[in-house]
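Example record

One chain of 175 residues, shown exactly as stored in the release files.
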Amino acid sequence: MEQAASLGIDPARIAIGGDSAGGNLATVITIAGMAGHCPLPVYQLLIYPVTDLACDTSSYEKFADGYFLTRSLMLWFRDHYLPEAGAYADAQASPLRAELRRPLPPALVVTAGFDPLLDEGLAYARKMRSVGTEVTYRCHEGLIHGFANMTGAIPAARSALTEATTALRLAFARI
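Predicted structure tokens for this chain:
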């Protein structure tokens, strides 16, 4: 924030977002901002965010193979990111496990219908709502994990990403 003026940035109008692991980082940073450890964003755009590295939801079983992101690949990512057994249980790695005491900044949580991360994205949206966070949840039933990177080839992915960016634009219009 010290450099905001020199960069022409309004520190009161900063959103955070990401897809998959980037969604995980965005959630962790937002929670840290609520605790006063870093600047708090005004909006969250979370696209199929990783929110629980236990990798044990029913969507992990249902979509374990054949839908681009696999359960075994997620376990490989997790075990290389956090090689210490059980480290994934920490709320800084698995924000779904964080204790939320008050509303977070408004959020759009986007999931894909054929994604091992489907259940944890929905669970995180519900958790934020349970403390009064303004949350819009949108599941794109016919898409797979990674669709945000497939907008040139899949019209439904392009529409989903356009919908997300429109929500972000509207959020800034309200600020």
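Notes: The mean pLDDT is 96.
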